[in-house]
From TrEMBL:
<keyword id="KW-0805">Transcription regulation</keyword>
<protein>
    <submittedName>
        <fullName>LysR family transcriptional regulator</fullName>
    </submittedName>
</protein>
<dbReference type="InterPro" id="IPR036388">
    <property type="entry name" value="WH-like_DNA-bd_sf"/>
</dbReference>
<keyword id="KW-0804">Transcription</keyword>
<dbReference type="InterPro" id="IPR005119">
    <property type="entry name" value="LysR_subst-bd"/>
</dbReference>
<dbReference type="InterPro" id="IPR036390">
    <property type="entry name" value="WH_DNA-bd_sf"/>
</dbReference>
<keyword id="KW-0238">DNA-binding</keyword>
<dbReference type="Pfam" id="PF03466">
    <property type="entry name" value="LysR_substrate"/>
</dbReference>
<feature type="compositionally biased region" description="Polar residues">
    <location>
        <begin position="307"/>
        <end position="317"/>
    </location>
</feature>
<feature type="domain" description="HTH lysR-type">
    <location>
        <begin position="3"/>
        <end position="60"/>
    </location>
</feature>
<dbReference type="Pfam" id="PF00126">
    <property type="entry name" value="HTH_1"/>
</dbReference>
<dbReference type="InterPro" id="IPR000847">
    <property type="entry name" value="LysR_HTH_N"/>
</dbReference>
<comment type="similarity">
    <text>Belongs to the LysR transcriptional regulatory family.</text>
</comment>
<feature type="region of interest" description="Disordered">
    <location>
        <begin position="299"/>
        <end position="330"/>
    </location>
</feature>
Length: 330
Protein backbone atom coordinates (compact mmCIF):
# COMPACT_ATOMS: atom_id res chain seq x y z
CA UNK A 1 0.00 0.00 0.00
CA UNK A 2 1.44 3.40 -1.04
CA UNK A 3 0.65 6.41 1.14
CA UNK A 4 1.43 10.02 0.20
CA UNK A 5 3.45 11.61 3.00
CA UNK A 6 1.24 14.71 2.73
CA UNK A 7 -1.68 12.61 3.98
CA UNK A 8 0.31 11.51 7.02
CA UNK A 9 1.48 15.07 7.74
CA UNK A 10 -2.10 16.28 7.56
CA UNK A 11 -3.27 13.49 9.86
CA UNK A 12 -0.54 14.25 12.40
CA UNK A 13 -1.31 17.98 12.37
CA UNK A 14 -5.02 17.41 13.02
CA UNK A 15 -4.19 15.03 15.86
CA UNK A 16 -1.94 17.63 17.48
CA UNK A 17 -4.17 20.66 16.90
CA UNK A 18 -7.51 18.95 17.54
CA UNK A 19 -9.22 20.89 14.77
CA UNK A 20 -8.99 21.41 11.03
CA UNK A 21 -8.69 25.20 11.02
CA UNK A 22 -5.53 25.37 13.13
CA UNK A 23 -4.00 22.34 11.40
CA UNK A 24 -4.65 23.82 7.95
CA UNK A 25 -3.04 27.14 8.98
CA UNK A 26 -0.01 25.29 10.30
CA UNK A 27 0.40 23.35 7.06
CA UNK A 28 -0.25 26.41 4.86
CA UNK A 29 -3.15 24.74 3.06
CA UNK A 30 -6.85 25.53 2.88
CA UNK A 31 -9.27 23.78 5.23
CA UNK A 32 -11.12 22.05 2.35
CA UNK A 33 -7.80 20.74 1.02
CA UNK A 34 -6.88 19.31 4.41
CA UNK A 35 -10.35 17.79 4.81
CA UNK A 36 -9.86 16.08 1.46
CA UNK A 37 -6.51 14.65 2.58
CA UNK A 38 -8.02 13.20 5.75
CA UNK A 39 -10.85 11.64 3.74
CA UNK A 40 -8.35 10.20 1.26
CA UNK A 41 -6.33 8.62 4.07
CA UNK A 42 -9.45 7.15 5.68
CA UNK A 43 -10.57 5.73 2.33
CA UNK A 44 -7.12 4.29 1.67
CA UNK A 45 -6.96 2.60 5.08
CA UNK A 46 -10.64 1.68 5.19
CA UNK A 47 -11.17 3.09 8.69
CA UNK A 48 -12.45 6.25 10.35
CA UNK A 49 -9.58 8.10 11.96
CA UNK A 50 -11.49 10.89 13.74
CA UNK A 51 -14.70 11.47 15.62
CA UNK A 52 -16.00 14.82 14.40
CA UNK A 53 -17.98 17.29 16.51
CA UNK A 54 -18.55 21.01 16.69
CA UNK A 55 -15.79 21.15 19.31
CA UNK A 56 -13.16 19.67 17.02
CA UNK A 57 -11.78 16.31 15.92
CA UNK A 58 -10.78 13.50 18.26
CA UNK A 59 -8.83 10.45 17.04
CA UNK A 60 -10.73 7.18 17.08
CA UNK A 61 -9.16 4.02 18.44
CA UNK A 62 -7.80 3.34 14.95
CA UNK A 63 -6.62 6.96 14.71
CA UNK A 64 -4.74 6.66 18.00
CA UNK A 65 -3.08 3.48 16.79
CA UNK A 66 -1.89 5.21 13.62
CA UNK A 67 -0.80 8.32 15.55
CA UNK A 68 1.46 6.15 17.73
CA UNK A 69 3.54 5.31 14.64
CA UNK A 70 3.25 8.48 12.55
CA UNK A 71 6.09 10.42 14.19
CA UNK A 72 8.52 7.54 13.66
CA UNK A 73 7.37 7.10 10.06
CA UNK A 74 7.86 10.77 9.22
CA UNK A 75 11.15 10.99 11.11
CA UNK A 76 12.44 8.00 9.18
CA UNK A 77 11.41 9.52 5.87
CA UNK A 78 13.03 12.87 6.72
CA UNK A 79 16.24 11.09 7.74
CA UNK A 80 16.21 9.24 4.41
CA UNK A 81 15.78 12.57 2.59
CA UNK A 82 18.68 14.13 4.48
CA UNK A 83 20.94 11.16 3.79
CA UNK A 84 20.01 11.14 0.10
CA UNK A 85 20.59 14.87 -0.33
CA UNK A 86 23.83 14.74 1.64
CA UNK A 87 25.13 11.93 -0.56
CA UNK A 88 24.19 13.86 -3.67
CA UNK A 89 25.87 16.99 -2.34
CA UNK A 90 29.18 15.15 -1.95
CA UNK A 91 29.34 14.67 -5.70
CA UNK A 92 27.13 17.50 -6.87
CA UNK A 93 28.02 20.95 -8.05
CA UNK A 94 25.45 23.15 -6.28
CA UNK A 95 25.66 24.52 -2.75
CA UNK A 96 22.27 25.59 -1.40
CA UNK A 97 22.39 28.53 1.00
CA UNK A 98 19.35 29.89 2.82
CA UNK A 99 19.22 33.53 3.85
CA UNK A 100 17.01 36.01 5.68
CA UNK A 101 15.41 38.76 3.68
CA UNK A 102 17.72 41.53 4.87
CA UNK A 103 20.90 39.58 5.44
CA UNK A 104 21.40 38.90 1.74
CA UNK A 105 22.58 42.52 1.53
CA UNK A 106 25.77 41.37 3.24
CA UNK A 107 26.72 39.26 0.23
CA UNK A 108 28.08 40.62 -3.02
CA UNK A 109 29.24 39.24 -6.34
CA UNK A 110 32.67 39.00 -4.74
CA UNK A 111 31.38 36.30 -2.39
CA UNK A 112 30.15 34.10 -5.24
CA UNK A 113 33.25 34.77 -7.35
CA UNK A 114 35.54 33.87 -4.45
CA UNK A 115 33.61 30.63 -3.90
CA UNK A 116 33.86 29.76 -7.61
CA UNK A 117 37.61 30.23 -7.41
CA UNK A 118 37.87 27.91 -4.43
CA UNK A 119 35.44 25.32 -5.86
CA UNK A 120 35.74 25.31 -9.70
CA UNK A 121 32.59 24.00 -11.39
CA UNK A 122 30.39 24.68 -8.37
CA UNK A 123 27.66 27.29 -8.07
CA UNK A 124 25.70 28.80 -5.19
CA UNK A 125 21.92 28.52 -5.12
CA UNK A 126 20.42 31.15 -2.81
CA UNK A 127 17.03 30.49 -1.20
CA UNK A 128 15.15 32.94 1.01
CA UNK A 129 14.28 31.41 4.35
CA UNK A 130 10.76 30.12 4.92
CA UNK A 131 9.29 31.85 7.97
CA UNK A 132 6.96 28.87 8.51
CA UNK A 133 9.93 26.52 9.02
CA UNK A 134 12.16 27.41 12.02
CA UNK A 135 15.02 25.40 10.45
CA UNK A 136 14.67 27.12 7.04
CA UNK A 137 15.08 23.73 5.36
CA UNK A 138 18.17 22.54 7.27
CA UNK A 139 16.19 19.80 9.01
CA UNK A 140 15.04 18.22 5.75
CA UNK A 141 18.27 18.80 3.87
CA UNK A 142 16.69 21.27 1.44
CA UNK A 143 19.57 23.66 2.11
CA UNK A 144 23.18 23.05 3.14
CA UNK A 145 23.86 26.25 5.08
CA UNK A 146 21.67 28.96 6.58
CA UNK A 147 22.93 32.53 6.86
CA UNK A 148 21.25 33.90 9.98
CA UNK A 149 21.22 36.74 12.46
CA UNK A 150 20.68 34.82 15.68
CA UNK A 151 21.15 34.84 19.46
CA UNK A 152 24.36 33.17 20.73
CA UNK A 153 22.20 30.47 22.35
CA UNK A 154 21.43 29.00 18.90
CA UNK A 155 24.90 27.43 19.01
CA UNK A 156 23.36 24.83 21.32
CA UNK A 157 21.17 23.57 18.48
CA UNK A 158 23.42 24.01 15.45
CA UNK A 159 27.03 24.11 14.40
CA UNK A 160 27.96 27.64 13.41
CA UNK A 161 30.68 29.47 11.54
CA UNK A 162 30.52 32.93 13.09
CA UNK A 163 31.05 35.90 10.79
CA UNK A 164 30.58 38.67 13.31
CA UNK A 165 28.06 40.61 15.37
CA UNK A 166 25.87 43.58 14.56
CA UNK A 167 23.22 45.52 16.44
CA UNK A 168 19.50 45.04 16.09
CA UNK A 169 17.85 48.39 15.45
CA UNK A 170 14.27 49.65 15.55
CA UNK A 171 12.40 50.11 12.28
CA UNK A 172 9.75 52.85 12.56
CA UNK A 173 7.45 54.59 10.08
CA UNK A 174 9.04 57.92 9.13
CA UNK A 175 6.35 59.93 10.97
CA UNK A 176 6.60 57.98 14.23
CA UNK A 177 6.91 59.98 17.47
CA UNK A 178 10.36 58.44 18.11
CA UNK A 179 11.67 58.72 14.56
CA UNK A 180 13.50 61.96 15.36
CA UNK A 181 15.58 60.38 18.12
CA UNK A 182 19.26 59.58 17.54
CA UNK A 183 18.98 56.61 19.95
CA UNK A 184 15.88 54.98 21.45
CA UNK A 185 15.77 53.32 24.86
CA UNK A 186 14.27 49.82 24.71
CA UNK A 187 11.77 50.67 27.45
CA UNK A 188 10.26 53.37 25.23
CA UNK A 189 9.12 50.69 22.79
CA UNK A 190 7.46 48.32 25.25
CA UNK A 191 3.94 49.64 24.69
CA UNK A 192 4.27 49.99 20.91
CA UNK A 193 2.41 47.61 18.57
CA UNK A 194 4.87 45.32 16.75
CA UNK A 195 4.83 43.70 13.35
CA UNK A 196 5.39 40.01 14.10
CA UNK A 197 6.35 37.04 11.97
CA UNK A 198 4.13 33.89 12.09
CA UNK A 199 3.78 31.68 15.17
CA UNK A 200 5.11 28.81 13.03
CA UNK A 201 8.53 30.48 13.00
CA UNK A 202 8.96 29.35 16.61
CA UNK A 203 11.92 30.83 18.46
CA UNK A 204 12.57 33.33 15.64
CA UNK A 205 9.30 35.11 16.42
CA UNK A 206 10.32 35.59 20.04
CA UNK A 207 13.82 36.71 19.06
CA UNK A 208 12.69 39.43 16.65
CA UNK A 209 10.10 40.61 19.17
CA UNK A 210 12.87 40.80 21.80
CA UNK A 211 10.79 38.70 24.22
CA UNK A 212 13.79 37.97 26.41
CA UNK A 213 14.58 41.65 26.95
CA UNK A 214 10.94 42.32 27.86
CA UNK A 215 11.25 40.41 31.11
CA UNK A 216 7.77 38.90 30.87
CA UNK A 217 5.98 42.01 29.67
CA UNK A 218 3.54 40.99 26.87
CA UNK A 219 3.95 42.13 23.27
CA UNK A 220 1.25 44.10 21.47
CA UNK A 221 0.90 42.65 17.96
CA UNK A 222 -0.20 45.21 15.38
CA UNK A 223 0.16 42.96 12.33
CA UNK A 224 1.54 39.59 11.28
CA UNK A 225 3.71 39.41 8.17
CA UNK A 226 4.49 36.30 6.16
CA UNK A 227 7.59 37.52 4.36
CA UNK A 228 10.05 40.40 4.43
CA UNK A 229 8.13 42.58 1.97
CA UNK A 230 4.93 42.24 4.00
CA UNK A 231 6.85 43.05 7.19
CA UNK A 232 8.33 46.23 5.76
CA UNK A 233 5.01 47.28 4.22
CA UNK A 234 3.29 46.93 7.61
CA UNK A 235 5.93 49.14 9.22
CA UNK A 236 5.62 51.76 6.46
CA UNK A 237 1.82 51.80 6.85
CA UNK A 238 2.06 52.40 10.59
CA UNK A 239 0.65 49.03 11.68
CA UNK A 240 3.54 48.53 14.04
CA UNK A 241 7.25 48.87 14.63
CA UNK A 242 9.84 46.13 14.49
CA UNK A 243 13.44 45.15 15.06
CA UNK A 244 15.79 44.56 12.16
CA UNK A 245 19.51 43.97 11.54
CA UNK A 246 21.50 47.19 11.40
CA UNK A 247 22.64 46.28 7.87
CA UNK A 248 19.13 46.99 6.59
CA UNK A 249 19.53 50.65 7.53
CA UNK A 250 22.88 50.90 5.74
CA UNK A 251 22.36 48.75 2.68
CA UNK A 252 18.61 49.03 2.03
CA UNK A 253 17.56 52.49 3.26
CA UNK A 254 14.08 53.91 2.62
CA UNK A 255 12.81 57.45 3.02
CA UNK A 256 9.58 56.21 4.61
CA UNK A 257 11.32 54.07 7.24
CA UNK A 258 13.42 55.37 10.14
CA UNK A 259 16.01 52.91 11.44
CA UNK A 260 17.24 53.88 14.89
CA UNK A 261 19.74 52.30 17.33
CA UNK A 262 18.16 50.84 20.45
CA UNK A 263 19.83 51.11 23.85
CA UNK A 264 19.24 47.94 25.90
CA UNK A 265 18.75 45.52 23.00
CA UNK A 266 21.29 42.72 22.57
CA UNK A 267 23.14 42.41 19.24
CA UNK A 268 22.76 39.62 16.72
CA UNK A 269 25.43 37.05 16.02
CA UNK A 270 25.79 36.60 12.27
CA UNK A 271 26.91 33.23 11.00
CA UNK A 272 26.48 30.25 8.73
CA UNK A 273 24.58 27.41 10.45
CA UNK A 274 24.15 23.70 9.74
CA UNK A 275 22.90 20.66 11.71
CA UNK A 276 25.22 19.41 14.44
CA UNK A 277 25.00 15.85 13.14
CA UNK A 278 26.28 16.80 9.69
CA UNK A 279 30.00 16.93 8.86
CA UNK A 280 30.75 20.00 6.70
CA UNK A 281 31.55 19.19 3.08
CA UNK A 282 34.48 20.83 1.24
CA UNK A 283 31.98 23.08 -0.54
CA UNK A 284 30.48 24.22 2.78
CA UNK A 285 33.94 24.94 4.15
CA UNK A 286 34.87 26.88 1.02
CA UNK A 287 31.75 29.02 1.26
CA UNK A 288 32.54 29.86 4.87
CA UNK A 289 36.00 31.03 3.79
CA UNK A 290 34.51 33.05 0.96
CA UNK A 291 32.08 34.80 3.31
CA UNK A 292 34.85 35.58 5.76
CA UNK A 293 36.91 37.07 2.96
CA UNK A 294 34.16 39.22 1.44
CA UNK A 295 31.35 39.90 3.94
CA UNK A 296 31.85 43.14 5.84
CA UNK A 297 30.47 43.52 9.35
CA UNK A 298 31.08 46.33 11.78
CA UNK A 299 31.87 44.01 14.71
CA UNK A 300 34.02 40.97 14.07
CA UNK A 301 34.06 38.22 16.67
CA UNK A 302 37.16 38.53 18.84
CA UNK A 303 39.94 36.11 17.91
CA UNK A 304 40.05 34.94 21.53
CA UNK A 305 36.73 33.22 20.89
CA UNK A 306 38.30 31.12 18.13
CA UNK A 307 39.24 28.20 20.32
CA UNK A 308 37.40 25.32 18.67
CA UNK A 309 37.03 24.30 15.05
CA UNK A 310 33.94 22.23 14.12
CA UNK A 311 34.70 18.77 12.82
CA UNK A 312 35.45 18.65 9.12
CA UNK A 313 36.84 22.19 8.79
CA UNK A 314 40.57 22.68 8.41
CA UNK A 315 42.54 25.13 10.54
CA UNK A 316 43.76 27.22 7.59
CA UNK A 317 40.62 29.32 7.22
CA UNK A 318 41.54 33.04 7.24
CA UNK A 319 40.69 34.55 10.66
CA UNK A 320 38.99 31.22 11.51
CA UNK A 321 36.79 32.53 14.34
CA UNK A 322 34.87 29.33 15.01
CA UNK A 323 33.24 30.70 18.10
CA UNK A 324 32.17 28.13 20.71
CA UNK A 325 29.32 28.89 23.02
CA UNK A 326 30.65 31.04 25.83
CA UNK A 327 29.90 30.18 29.47
CA UNK A 328 27.16 32.39 30.77
CA UNK A 329 25.73 33.27 27.38
CA UNK A 330 21.95 32.89 27.06
Amino acid sequence: MDVDTRLLRGFAAVCEEGQLTAAAARLLVSQPALTKRIRQLETLLGVELFERSRHGMTPTRAGRALAAHTDALMAGWEEALRATRAAAAEHGSTLRVGFEGGIINLMTQRTVADFARRMPGWQVELRQNNWFDPTSGLATGEIDLALWHAPPSLARRYSVAVLGEEPRCAALPAGHRLAGRAVIDFEELLDEPFVAIPHESGHWRDYWLAVRERGGRPVRIGAVAHNTDEWLAAVVCGQGVGFAPETMSRLAPREDVAYRPVRGLSPSRVGLYWPKDRTPTPAMAAFVRSCRATVGLGNRIDEREAQNTPQGLSQDTPRAPWAPERPGMP
